[in-house]
Design brief:
globular; 17 helices; mainly alpha; Growth Hormone, Chain: A; single chain
């Protein structure tokens, strides 16, 4: 077998799969980010309060939390090709339904549909990376596809003013965003298969992908059985300490800049694009660092944890943002924190495939995201209330909490899985 590996030139189709995941994540976050960008405009036109906006965000996160639990289990049963395809169809329809909303309740209902369906993206993507990449490349591949979340956030503030100016209504933004999902689906159904089923891979690439990890037999496993493993809770609580912070940047970032510096929709593009370009680079870099360390012979335990610790330290300065009088400095600090989050995210998602067999990666990803999204929902309700009482005081508390969550998260992970021992028997 080793002679075959060296004599046959390896194909590299797995990177085309990352490209498909990247574009799916871009569409996913473009749809998701629209509300945060349009919030100041819609707040004036629809007339909702800060508390009602908090309800809208909480509705999305409640649905997303339930959806990840269901979608992760569903994708493990039907596979990534069918599971992600169905999810994209549903979230594209849900995005278009935002255009019919007339009250904050209407937006909340549309966000519920979007949350449930968009929940399929990350369980499917992490499972796909586990199927298509050896462990030493997974963090880098995850960092690459997860970069789509930032590209979606970059495109939103650029395209939204152009669409509104060209077509005359914010409703067209949601309609056109829905069409992007159907466009992506065409290519996904044509080009995606598992490595052994794909006509674009050869034996050398398949051997490289499996890297001593032959595909395991599918077994049925309940969510309750997963709960008995410390590994499940390490990932779940690690995400709980970080994901609500990302939701804060995503849904309140534009509102914070509007409140503190008076930036309107047309002026919002440059600050937000700057933040998410840097965040994108952070995710790719964080994934590349842990993958590089593993290729140099460092253990999975050391490579993932040292990268996540470095990310946690880089977040700390964001606590000073509410006290900054400079827009440039505020944007720079938020960008640094966002980059550190994306580095953290690339690695904690990869930890799931480090700790669990491929056939349950979707379920574990779904459960962990449900836990973290529940935290985000509670955070949204509390923040909406705090900002209704005092915008300055509310943002001060939010940025302080955002700065320390990651250090708490890496501490929890290290205590629960000190050696990153994988689950071998389910």
């Amino acid at each position: 077998m080793s002679k075959q590996k060296t004599s046959l030139k390896k194909t590299n189709y797995r990177w085309a799969i990352v490209a498909l995941l990247f574009f799916a994540t871009t569409v996913n976050y473009f749809d998701r980010f629209l509300m945060g960008i349009l919030a100041p405009l819609l707040e004036t036109e629809i007339g909702w309060t800060e508390q009602e906006y908090g309800y809208i965000i909480a509705a999305f996160q409640l649905a997303y939390g339930i959806g990840t639990l269901l979608m992760g289990y569903f994708i493990d049963r039907v596979g990534t090709r069918v599971g992600l395809g169905i999810a994209v169809v549903l979230w594209s329809i849900a995005s278009m339904l935002h255009a019919t909303a007339r009250t904050w309740v209407g937006f909340a209902l549309a966000r519920i549909g979007l949350g449930i369906s968009e929940a399929g993206n990350f369980p499917a993507a992490i499972k796909t990376v586990a199927e298509w990449f050896p462990k030493k490349e997974r963090a880098f591949a995850t960092g690459l596809f997860n970069g789509g979340s930032n590209v979606g956030a970059i495109l939103a503030p650029i395209l939204i003013p152009l669409i509104i100016a060209g077509l005359g209504s914010w409703r067209w933004v949601f309609i056109l965003s829905g069409f992007l999902g159907f466009f992506w689906l065409f290519f996904w159904l044509i080009f995606y298969r598992k490595p052994r089923e794909s006509r674009f891979t050869n034996k050398a690439e398949i051997d490289f992908i499996e890297d001593g990890e032959p595909e395991v037999e599918k077994v049925k496993i309940s969510w309750f059985k997963l709960l008995k493993y410390r590994q499940t809770w390490a990932v779940s609580l690690g995400k709980l300490m970080a994901d609500p912070v990302w939701y804060f940047y995503l849904f309140w970032g534009a509102k914070f800049l509007n409140t503190k510096f008076g930036i309107d929709l047309k002026e919002m593009a440059l600050p937000l694009v700057s933040i998410y370009v840097i965040a994108d680079l952070g995710g790719i870099t964080g994934g590349a660092i842990s993958s590089f360390l593993m290729k140099k012979g460092k253990s999975v335990n050391f490579s993932r944890k040292i990268t996540m610790l470095g990310s946690a330290i880089l977040v700390l300065p964001v606590m000073t943002v509410p006290h900054q009088s400079s827009l440039v400095i505020s944007v720079a600090l938020i960008a640094l924190a966002a980059a550190a989050h994306c580095s953290w995210s690339a690695n904690i998602f990869t930890v799931i495939s480090d700790l669990f067999p491929k056939n349950v990666v979707g379920s574990v990803t779904g459960f962990a995201t449900t836990v973290s999204t529940a935290g985000g929902m509670v955070t949204a309700l509390l923040l909406g209330h705090a900002l209704g009482e005092s915008s300055q005081g509310g943002y001060e508390i939010a940025f302080k909490v955002a700065s320390f969550g990651y250090l708490i998260g890496i501490t929890i992970i290290h205590v629960l899985v000190p050696r990153m021992k994988p689950v071998t028997k389910l």
